[in-house]
C-alpha cells in the first residue's frame, strides 16, 4: 500500500479495487478482470476490475477523459483500431475476449454498441438493417424484413417511420436516428448492449424517450451505459461504477448499487462528485 | 456609444472585392477562350466534319479517325487507371496511416510522378511501353502512359475523399460486426463517390488535353485504328499538328479544339449522370 504517498484528499482511493460488496451473488454477464489499457505510450487505466451484471443497467460515471469510453471500446475490441495494447481479461461466456483468436464479427453480434452521436449510414432505413444482417448470415429478404420490423417496434419507431422505410435514414431527426441505431443493434439479437453517452446529443424530449427505452431493454439485455449525466444515472441505473482521473490515469473508485452510490457513498471523492448533482 | 461591430471594415471590403474580382476574372478568361475558339472554329464545322476522314493533311475533310482514337485512348486509360487508383487509395486511406514509412514513400512517389513534365512521361512511355514491352506505337501504349500520368491525381483525390469521411462511420460499421470489405464497398466508397467523380472528371480532362506524352507513344498516324494495338492520332495531337506543321490548318485546328471542348463537356455530364445512378443504387 502506498497510501501515504497520495495527496491528503485522495487518501481513500483504494489501491486494488474489486467487486462491490454484497453483489457477488448476481449473475455476471461480462467480467472485466485486471484490465490495463495503453494507447500509444499513455496509460489510460491500469488493472481495472469490474463485473457487469446480467439484465441490469450498469452505468459508468466520471469526469471526461478518465477512460470511460475507452473501457467500452475494449469490450468490443474497437480499441484494436487505435494502436492500443491491452492486458488482463474480459470474460464473456467463459471466453476471454482479448484472446487473439476471438472472432470479432461474432463478438460484435453478441455485444452491440451505441455511440454518443447516432450514425445512421447514408442510405435507406431498410439498407441500414440489411447490411449488418447480411453480414451475419441473414440473407432471406423476408427474414430481414421481419427482424427490421421487430427491432423498430421494440424502439417504438415503427409507427413513426414504417411508411418511409426506403427513404434515407440520415434524414430522420436526432432522437429518431439514435433509436434507429439502437434498433439496428437490436436486430442483430445481441445479449449485451454497450452505450456510450447515448443521450448527450439529444434534446430533453428525445432523451426521455430513449431513457424509457433503455429501462425497457434491461428485461432482455444487459446494459452497460457510460454517462456523465449524473441525473440520468440516478434515474435509470441499477449499478453505478465511478471512475476518476488519478495519478495520470483513470481509476475505478467505487462500484455499488445506484442508491448506495448516490445516497451514502463510501468514498469522499464519490461523495463530492455525486453532490454536484444536488448543488 | 455605437461600439457595435460592423461588417464594413476595410479588410473585409478588400477581401470581398478581391474574391469577386478573381471570380469574374476566371469567368471572363474562360468566356474569352470559348468565344475565340467558337468564332474561329464554328464556320469550319458541319455534320460531315465528324464522320469524314481528313483530307490534305487535315486542311479539308473531317476528324473521324481522331475522334475514334481519342475515345479509345480515354476509355483504355480509365479502365487501367481507375481500378488501380481506387485500390491504391483504399490501401492508403484504410489500411495505413499517414505516419507509416511505406505509405509516406508511396505518397512521395506520387508527388514526384505528378510533377514530371508530360514530355518526360512521353519518353518514359516510349522507352518502357513502346520499346521494352514491345507494344509499339499504339493506342494501348498511349493509354498506359496516360494512366501513369493521371494515377497520382486519381489516387490523391480518392484518398482525400475517403479520409474526409468521419471516423464514426468506420467505428459504427466495425461495432455492427461488418467486415472491412463490406464497410469499404458498401458504405465508404458510395460516400466518397462525389470525390471519385471529381477525380475522374479531372483525369478525363487531363487525358484528353495531353499531347506531348501521346506523340511518343500513340504516334500521329491519321487513319482510323483497327485495334488498340494500332497507332492513332488523338484530337489534341491533331490540333498541335494542324497549328504547328500545317500552313493553312488553323480553321481546322480551331474546329477540332471546339470539338474537343464540347466532347469534354459531354463526357463530364455523362460521368456525373452515371455516378448519380451508382449512388442512388447504393442508397436503396
Structure description:
The complex is a heterodimer of chains A (279) and B (284). With 279 residues, chain A is an alpha/beta fold. In chain A, 33% of the residues lie in helices and 25% in strands. Chain A has ten helices and ten strands. Chain A has helices at residues 68-75, 104-110, 125-135, 141-154, 158-161, 174-186, 204-217, 230-236, 258-263, 268-275, and strands at residues 28-39, 42-53, 57-61, 84-92, 95-96, 111-114, 192-196, 222-226, 239-246, 249-257. In chain A, the strands form two sheets. Chain A has a six-stranded mixed sheet with strand order 6-7-8-3-9-10, sandwiched between helices. In chain A, a hairpin with a 2-residue loop joins strand 4 (84-92) and strand 5. In chain A, helix 4 crosses helix 6. The longest helix of chain A is centred in the middle third of the chain and has 14 residues, at 141-154. Chain A is globular and about 55 Å long. Residues 1-11 of chain A have low confidence and may be disordered. With 284 residues, chain B is an all-alpha fold. Chain B folds into two domains: 3-44; 47-283, MetI-like fold (Orthogonal Bundle), CATH 1.10.3720.10. A two-stranded antiparallel ribbon of chain B has the order 1-2. The longest helix of chain B has 34 residues, at 250-283. Chain B is globular. The model of chain B has no long low-confidence stretch (mean pLDDT 89). The A-B interface holds A 76, 78, 81, 104-109, 112-113, 115, 117, 119, 121-124, 126-127, 131-132, 134-136, 166, 168, 181, 184-185, 188 and B 166, 168-179, 182, 186-187, 190-191, 282-284.
Using only C-alpha atoms, the radius of gyration of chain A works out to 19 Å
Number of strands of chain B: 2
Uncertain parts of chain B = none
The proportion of residues forming helix of chain A, as a percent range, comes to 25-40%
- Backbone CA Rg of chain B: 23 Å
Level of helix content of chain B? over 70%
Determine the number of helices of chain A (DSSP H or I, runs of at least 4 residues): 10
The biggest sheet of chain B, with number of strands, parallel, antiparallel or mixed sense and barrel status, is: 2 strands, antiparallel
The H/E string of chain B reads HEEHHHHHHHHHH
Mean pLDDT of chain A: 85
The CATH superfamily of the largest domain in chain B bears the name: MetI-like
What is the CATH architecture descriptor of the largest domain in chain B? Orthogonal Bundle
Beta-strand residue percentage of chain A: 25-35%
Q: Largest beta sheet of chain A, briefly?
A: 6 strands, mixed
Estimated structural class of chain B: mainly alpha
* Strand line-up across the major sheet of chain B: 1-2
Q: Could you tell me how far the N terminus lies from the C terminus of chain A, measured between alpha carbons in angstroms?
A: 34 Å
Amino acid at each position: 500500500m502506498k497510501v501515504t504517498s497520495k495527496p491528503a484528499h485522495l487518501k481513500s482511493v483504494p489501491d486494488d479495487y474489486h467487486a462491490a460488496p454484497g453483489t457477488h451473488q448476481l449473475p455476471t454477464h461480462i467480467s472485466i478482470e485486471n484490465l490495463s489499457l495503453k494507447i500509444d505510450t499513455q496509460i489510460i487505466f491500469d488493472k481495472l476490475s469490474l463485473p457487469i451484471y446480467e439484465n441490469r443497467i450498469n452505468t459508468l460515471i466520471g469526469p471526461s477523459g478518465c477512460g470511460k469510453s475507452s473501457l467500452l471500446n475494449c469490450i468490443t475490441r474497437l480499441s484494436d483500431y487505435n494502436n492500443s495494447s491491452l492486458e488482463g481479461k474480459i470474460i464473456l461466456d467463459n471466453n476471454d475476449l482479448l484472446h487473439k483468436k476471438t472472432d470479432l464479427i461474432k463478438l460484435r453480434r453478441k455485444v452491440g454498441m451505441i455511440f454518443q452521436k447516432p450514425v445512421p449510414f447514408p442510405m435507406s432505413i431498410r439498407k441500414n438493417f440489411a447490411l449488418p444482417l447480411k453480414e451475419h448470415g441473414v440473407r432471406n429478404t423476408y427474414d430481414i424484413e421481419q427482424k427490421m420490423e421487430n427491432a423498430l417496434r421494440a424502439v417504438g419507431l415503427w409507427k413513426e417511420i414504417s411508411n418511409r422505410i426506403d427513404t434515407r435514414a440520415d434524414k430522420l431527426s436526432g432522437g429518431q436516428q439514435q433509436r434507429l441505431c439502437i434498433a439496428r443493434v437490436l436486430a442483430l439479437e445481441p445479449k449485451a448492449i454497450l452505450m456510450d453517452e447515448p443521450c448527450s446529443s439529444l434534446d430533453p424530449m428525445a432523451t426521455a424517450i430513449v431513457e424509457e427505452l433503455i429501462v425497457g431493454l434491461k428485461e432482455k439485455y444487459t446494459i452497460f451505459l457510460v454517462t456523465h449525466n449524473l441525473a440520468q444515472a440516478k434515474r435509470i441505473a441499477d449499478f453505478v461504477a465511478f471512475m476518476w482521473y488519478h495519478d495520470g490515469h483513470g481509476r475505478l473508485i467505487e462500484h455499488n448499487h445506484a442508491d448506495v452510490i448516490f445516497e451514502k457513498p463510501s468514498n469522499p471523492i464519490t461523495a463530492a462528485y455525486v453532490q454536484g448533482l444536488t448543488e | 456609444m455605437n461600439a457595435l461591430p460592423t461588417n464594413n471594415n476595410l479588410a473585409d471590403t478588400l477581401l470581398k472585392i478581391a474574391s469577386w474580382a478573381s471570380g469574374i476574372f476566371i469567368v471572363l478568361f474562360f468566356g474569352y477562350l470559348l468565344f475565340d475558339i467558337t468564332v474561329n472554329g464554328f464556320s469550319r464545322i458541319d455534320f460531315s466534319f465528324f464522320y469524314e476522314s481528313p483530307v490534305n493533311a487535315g486542311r479539308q475533310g473531317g476528324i473521324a479517325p481522331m475522334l475514334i482514337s481519342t475515345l479509345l485512348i480515354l476509355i483504355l486509360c480509365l479502365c487501367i487507371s481507375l481500378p488501380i487508383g481506387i485500390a491504391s487509395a483504399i490501401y492508403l486511406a484504410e489500411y495505413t496511416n499517414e505516419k507509416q514509412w511505406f505509405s509516406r514513400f508511396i505518397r512521395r512517389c506520387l508527388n514526384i510522378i505528378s510533377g514530371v513534365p508530360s514530355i518526360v512521361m512521353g519518353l518514359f512511355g516510349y522507352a518502357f511501353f513502346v520499346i521494352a514491352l514491345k507494344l509499339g506505337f499504339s493506342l494501348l501504349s498511349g493509354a498506359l502512359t496516360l494512366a501513369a500520368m493521371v494515377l497520382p491525381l486519381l489516387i490523391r483525390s480518392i484518398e482525400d475523399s475517403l479520409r474526409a469521411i468521419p471516423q464514426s462511420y468506420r467505428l459504427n460499421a466495425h461495432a455492427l460486426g461488418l467486415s472491412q470489405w463490406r464497410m469499404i464497398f458498401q458504405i465508404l466508397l458510395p460516400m466518397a463517390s462525389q470525390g471519385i467523380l471529381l477525380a475522374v472528371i479531372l483525369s478525363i480532362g487531363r487525358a484528353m488535353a495531353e499531347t506531348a506524352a501521346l506523340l511518343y507513344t500513340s504516334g500521329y498516324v491519321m487513319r482510323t485504328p483497327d485495334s488498340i494495338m494500332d497507332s492513332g492520332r488523338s484530337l489534341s495531337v491533331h490540333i498541335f499538328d494542324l497549328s504547328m506543321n500545317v500552313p493553312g490548318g488553323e480553321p481546322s485546328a480551331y474546329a477540332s479544339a471546339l470539338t474537343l471542348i464540347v466532347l469534354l463537356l459531354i463526357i463530364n455530364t455523362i460521368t456525373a449522370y452515371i455516378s448519380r445512378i451508382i449512388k442512388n443504387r447504393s442508397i436503396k
